[in-house]
Amino acid sequence: ALRASLGFDLWTLTGVLFSLRAWPSLIQGRIRWATMEDIVEFCGEQLADATSAELLAATKHLVLNQAVLGKGPLEHWEQERRPARLATRPIVQRHDGLVTAMPWAVEMALRIYAHYLGDGRLPWPSSATPLGVQTAIDRYREGRNNHLERELFDAVIGADYRARRNIKKPRVLALERLSGEIDVLAADEDQRVLWILEAKDPQEAFSGRQIADSVRDFHGDGSKRYVRRLLSKVDDVEQNPTGGADALHVPNPDGPWKVRGMIVTRRPIAAAYVPDSKVPFSTLKHVLRDMHSLR
Q1: Which among 40, 46, 130, 213 is placed 20 to 30 Å from 286, CA to CA?
Q2: pLDDT of residue 74
Q3: What's this model's pTM, rounded to 2 decimal places?
């Protein structure tokens, strides 16, 4: 998708950054200004599998110039929303078209790209990302969340809980209604607790605005409202917890059950530290410990 939309792939983009770490930015103590073709030729010597056209397209995406900056003020607080992120464009271009690469900035940009790619995304705002690329990113992010659900289910099963995943239909739990899909339903038979575990793998937040948006996604009343949705599922299962226990093949499903919800993420997130949260948060690493301590 990236090559079809922008003319290069991620290997070429990161390869250019790797190559430019060795760019001789100074000549006899003075800044070395060069043409874009010089940059492409320099990188091509180390990236034999990439064509000149691919290298040029990738290099242009790393350039910082007046056109990229625009005429308005640089809104630093809009880190994820503005296309002109200084830290991801380590090639500076003058008004006459000559460019130079700053090795220290190249190293920083490479670390940023590596971190974002590890999180399943790119350090570009959606407004500056081609639709095909954004669609591919969204599919990958969805796959990461599905994988977290499987890991969570495997962890619970491995700890000898009776559990079931991806429950979508209310009749499975002998309910009249179910507000949404249950990622994992697990039974603590000793304490008679039914756990509704919600797996969420949100993007890692960096700027203050993005952190605030992430907290609102969980605790707010907007379109996502993850906490409110989880509480609705808890309310649904509480209408007939025996049906939930029976669906998990608990030997003695009858009797009183407590129904609790928990949001499980891959890493700690800001939303987990909101005072007086209506549901507990945990991570995949600590979910079994927290299920035991909170029961």
Answers
A1: 213
A2: 67
A3: 0.81
